[in-house]
């Protein structure tokens, strides 16, 4: 009994000396309609849409974008902001899902991807593999298949980031800096990080609390 008695006074000291592990940070893929409206104010409604059947509201966009972040594991708020900003700019605040200017056949989704990227994207989705095979490479048909489901229409931005951008671009983007965002636009998307795009990115950064 004596050894046990000697150890008892030490137990509180040992407990206090044990390291306390901080809980792992929870990933956040949730996006609200209010956040989308902050980034793309026109998405509050689809009154007088410029293209029949293409406009989507923030209420439609938010859950589908959130689903895409979950599907592709985009948990960085800085990356999420960049993806949403890109889609808002390219789709003119979710009012278009097809390219109208100049009207490239097969170019579209909310990320306004080129036909070649849409082909890669469609081929990566097992649920539509039969339809994609039946399209036999027809760019217009492949876009139609993607646009038939809002999940795929709004999922293209997250797919592109996670499959077409290299790790260096993503790491820089995750910093939340303008330099990281600019590198994503110019180094992966392959276009100019101009003031128009920057405005949407700044709104997205604010809305998502980056």
UniProtKB/TrEMBL annotation:
Residues 1-17 form the signal peptide. It comes from the Eukaryota. Keywords: Signal. This is Transglycosylase SLT domain-containing protein. It comes from Aspergillus cristatus.
């Amino acid at each position: 009994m004596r050894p046990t008695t000697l150890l008892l006074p030490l137990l509180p000291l040992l407990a206090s000396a044990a390291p306390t592990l901080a809980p792992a940070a929870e990933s956040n893929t949730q996006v609200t309609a209010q956040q989308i409206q902050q980034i793309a104010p026109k998405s509050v409604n689809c009154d007088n849409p410029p293209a029949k059947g293409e406009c989507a509201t923030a209420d439609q966009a938010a859950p589908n974008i959130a689903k895409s972040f979950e599907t592709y594991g985009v948990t960085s708020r800085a990356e999420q902001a960049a993806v949403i900003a890109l889609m808002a700019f390219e789709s003119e605040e979710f009012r278009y899902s097809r390219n109208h200017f100049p009207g490239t056949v097969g170019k579209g989704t909310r990320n306004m991807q080129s036909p070649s990227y849409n082909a890669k994207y469609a081929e990566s989705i097992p649920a539509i593999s039969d339809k994609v095979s039946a399209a036999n490479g027809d760019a217009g048909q492949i876009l139609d298949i993607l646009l038939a489901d809002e999940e795929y229409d709004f999922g293209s931005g997250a797919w592109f980031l996670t499959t077409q951008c290299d790790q260096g671009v993503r790491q820089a983007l995750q910093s939340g800096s303008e330099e990281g965002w600019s590198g994503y636009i110019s180094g992966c998307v392959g276009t100019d990080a101009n003031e128009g795009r920057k405005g949407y990115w700044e709104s997205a950064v604010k809305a998502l609390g980056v």
